[in-house]
Structures are given as structure tokens and as C-alpha cells.
What we know:
Elements: H1 3-37, H2 48-62, H3 68-78, H4 86-93, H5 95-108, H6 113-134, H7 139-161, H8 176-193, H9 200-209, H10 217-239, H11 244-265, H12 271-299
Amino acid sequence: MSLDAKSWLLVALGCISLFHLFTLGTAIAQKRRDAAAAKSSEAIAPTPVGVAIGFVTNFFDTLGIGSFAPTTSLFRFFKSVPDENIPGTLNVGHTIPTLIEAYIFIQAVQVDPKTLITMIAAATLGAWLGAGVVSGLSRTAVQRGMGVCLFVAALLLAAKAAGIGPAQGVAEGVEGTKLVIALVGNFILGALMTLGIGLYGPCLILVSMLGMNPTAAFPIMMGSCAFLMPVASARFTKTRRFDLKASLGLIIGGAPAVLIAALIVKSLPLQYVMWLVVVVVLYTSVTMLRSAMQSSQATAPSAG
């Protein structure tokens, strides 16, 4: 990747980072105004559990496991975030750690600039459109959507843990029809990010199927998330469909975890960890779908 293209992309990443910090600051200020108007003394400071969730999920996210599905499972286990607010909380809370990942991997990994930039743009557009839909969904609809997406995420992670997938390619980019497929695929993945399914696993599979080196997926998937998540977060904060306290926990715990994983640890034997995540995510998927079914039955009009 040429220095000029990389430099421009990093400048754009800096701009989107500033945009997200403004969005987050505005959300915090709004929360304080709401608390003052309601004469509420509720604190917005994250809990130690929330910070720990942020650290653990972002540490393994940097090593390639992904953070959305494990975070969803932990939120449900600790009953810390209402189901309908989980997609927004994931996008708002994991954005800053993901921005740090993107800065590191875009500079460290060689990838074709046209492929990288256009795939990032496609994912960002998908997220913008997707967040507008998801932020208006009911609790039951979110539960159904997340339940299905978590099930798919568990299957993808299981395939990765088992070493099932396309043969490793060597290309640093794609052209023509393959590039069109890459753009359409990343657009869809960007939209699904707003519903709580992580982009990392599916993007890695997409890139590998197109004959690219899987290592090239890291700047693509982290860059895509770094640009799309601030855009999605802006929509979720505008509609207040997120949990600020939990989001701050993800930020405070996640930022140092990324630096430790990327700059110090760098790699770990993760196969057993991935199988554990598969089991946990499958369980969460089942409980989410069961909750959606119970919600539907409770709101259904009685016969007669």
C-alpha cells in the first residue's frame, strides 16, 4: 500500500475519530441533562464488571475472535443491558477500541489500497442504513434478529476453530467481479453490524473466498468497523437506544486491552478459547430467541 494512500486513510480515520468523540461527548452531556431534569442521582460511571467485560472482549477481539457476540453473552449473563439496547451499546462502546485497532493494523499490514478503501466505504454505507432501521425496532424484533445473528456467528466461529474454510490465498487485493462481490458482501456485513453480529468472522471468510491472504482481512475488517461504528453510533445515540454506563465500561476496559494484545501479546493459541466462545454464544442465541418468543406470546391478543 502506497504511503500516500495510507496517509490519506489515516487522516480520514483521525477525522472519524474526532466525529465519534464529539458524538460521545454530546451523549454524555445529554444524559446529564436528562438526569438533572428528572432530579435523578443515577451515576453514569461504569461498574468494575463493565470495565472487565470491555477488557476481556477487546483483548480477544484484537487477536481475531471478535467482540460483539461475547459481549452480548456477558451483558445477558450479568443482566446489565436491556436486550433492545444491546446493539447500540455494542456499537457505541466498542468504537474507540476498534479505532485503536485500525490505526495499528492499517499501518502494519500490506493490502491493496483500492480494495481496502472501497470495502470500508461499502461497510460504512451499510451501517448507516442499517442503524436507521435497527434503532427503530421493538424489543421483540431485536431479540429475534440478534438471536439468529448470534447463531450464525457461532457457526462461523466454530468453522474457524475447526479449521474449516477456503484455502489460504496470497493476493493483497481484488479486481473486477471479485471486487464487486467484496463490496456487496461488506455492505451487507456493515448493515448486520448494527444488529449486533460482528463483522470480523464473516469478513475473514469473504476475503479468503476471494483468494486474498487472510492477513489482509485484518486492516479491512478493523478499518471497516472503525469507520462504520462511529456512523452507526451517531444514530443510536440520537435515538438514545444504548446504555451509556455499559458503553463507557467497554471503552475504559477496551482501550488498554487493545494496546496490550496488539503491541505486547500479539498472538496466543486461541483454539480452546474459540470453542468456549462458540458454546457461550450458542447458549445466548437460544435464550435470546426464547425471550423473543415469550415476548410475542405475552403481547399477542387472546382468542375470544
